[in-house]
Amino acid sequence: CHELVDIAIEVAVDRVRGASRERAADEGPGNQPAPVLPLDAGDLADLTLKPLTSQPGWEWAPALSPNGDAIAFTWTATLDGPRQLYVKRDKDAEPTKLTSLKEGQIGYLAWSPDGRRIAFKGRIDRQGALYLIAGNGGAEQKILDLGSEDLSTSIDWSPDGNLLAFSDRPP
Q: What is the pLDDT of residue 43?
């Protein structure tokens, strides 16, 4: 069972470690790697850690909204049950369920840059597809059938919100 707070902490720590790795990747004098700087409390000073959800079951694929006031994620009570898409807004006590799939699965999610839509990969009847749904709920809209039913690759929006980048095949 995963809690989004654990995922948020991992992402935050990875962000800081990534900055340390980037500093280490710079070559020093004589083409020697620069020393890796240890993390200290100052590296984490700008992070705010806050539990977002703690439902029993399986939470997966968290995606923060562009303005940071909401998180979209999938959840199911049992590992083999269909995952549903939820949004938890900072001001709300409970998450809002956006989908009601009877079968299939939902993969990775991505908020549009304006925060109005969520794109996600889904699989129903062994057919993968890309879908859109309004960030505040409504009917999901299939926008493209995929050649693969694999949901393990992520998706992302272009900065202007006009394009979606995705991989149709796992590596």
A: 66
The CA distances from residue 40 to 17, 20, 108, 130, in Å, are 11, 11, 32, 42
Q: Give, rounded to a whole angstrom, the gap between the first and last alpha carbons of the chain.
A: 27
Please name every residue paired with 75 in a beta bridge, in sequence order, or none if there are none. Answer: 59, 84
Which whole-number Å values give the CA distances from 90 to 37, 64, 65, in the listed order? Answer: 34, 11, 11
Task: Give the separation between CA 17 and CA 41, rounded to whole angstroms.
Answer: 13
- Distances in Å between the alpha carbon of 11 and those of 15, 38, 63? 6, 18, 11
Residue 5 is predicted with a pLDDT of 40
Tokens of 15: 């962000």
pLDDT given at position 53: 67
> Which residues of the chain, if any, have pLDDT below 50?
1-29
Cα gap 52→124, rounded to integer Å: 29
Find how far residue 80's CA is from the centre of its chain: 20
The model's pLDDT over 100-120, given as tens digits with 9 standing for 90+, comes to 888 888 889 999 999 999 999
CB 113 within 8 A of CB 106: no
List, in order, residues 6 or more apart from 129 with CB less than 8 Å away.
121, 122, 123, 142, 143, 144, 145, 146
φ/ψ (deg, to 5) at 18:
-60, -40
